[in-house]
Design goal:
single chain, alpha/beta, globular, binds ligand PBG
Amino acid sequence: MPKAAKSAPARLVLPQRPRRLRRTAAIRALVREARLSPAQLIQPVFIHEGKELEPVPSLPGIFRIPLARLGAYCRDLQKLGLGGVALFPKIDPKRKDALGREALNPNSLVLRAVREVKSAAPNFPIFADIALDPYTTHGHDGILTKRGDDVDNDRTVAILAKMAVLHAQAGVDFVAPSDMMDGRVGVIRRALDAAGHEETGILAYTAKYASAYYGPFRDAVGSKRTGQPPLSKATYQMDPANRREAMREAILDWSEGADILMVKPALLYLDIIASLRAHTHRPVAAYQVSGEYAQICAAAERGWLDLRAARDESLLAIRRAGADIILTYFAAAYAKGQ
Ligand code: PBG
């Protein structure tokens, strides 16, 4: 028997061996395509009128923060190198009404919070949601028509524009209309400019889908209706089946003056993130929403997923799809490497 055939198995003639680039950790790091830095992450933060940190059971590790502790909390987030904070108020239910009037109270919880953060951490970017759902008894993002079976788009937009100006006055760096009313970005831009707030930016929730994944958020801000089926926002938030429509929304927000375009949720909508990234030169953000976070945490609590590995993979996937900025409840933990 010929000697060679016995001792060495046949070698494939393979000029292309992709595994050469996966051989060691150092080589893998060298050829890695997508990276994630804490500077690209924004931490959503819930605030409340109480005095204590209040855990949100459906969002493990996330608390409603009292105003007295918010300044120090945000200074810590800034020290971690995060890109900013997005504030969400849980207001006293007694302050809610059908018209969401509390949204225009110049001393509302969120406006006091904005002032608190600005004085504690002046250079830390603050984002604030512009929508009426924390303020309405029915939980919709706008006020309702006379018949009560839909939101009144144009009257809602007029309120949102006033709300945006109040937020700019309080010191937010970006207002983030999350309501999905038609025409709101343009009206908000003009209102901000007319009030001398040319420097306040708009992060538009451009493609916000009518998703089942907002449940834990609605627990956190207290906008969930108890004992009733989940609220349908399908006449204003987008149909999860639609991709072309997201491009239409992007063109509108872009032409109305949005500075950053956002897709929400993130992981189930990576194709939308990728299309937006391919079709605009503006920064694209993605919101890894409460249900996405809760899902990973719940599986990890049962020992079915490794929390850190699943978290990091999910964030990297959102980056790889093309998001420049990610809003995620994991932001602080990711930056701490915990
Ligand atoms: C409100 C708003 C929602 C979220 C952000 N802003 C909920 C909703 O539209 O019902 C969801 C965020 C999350 O689930 O983490 N307009």
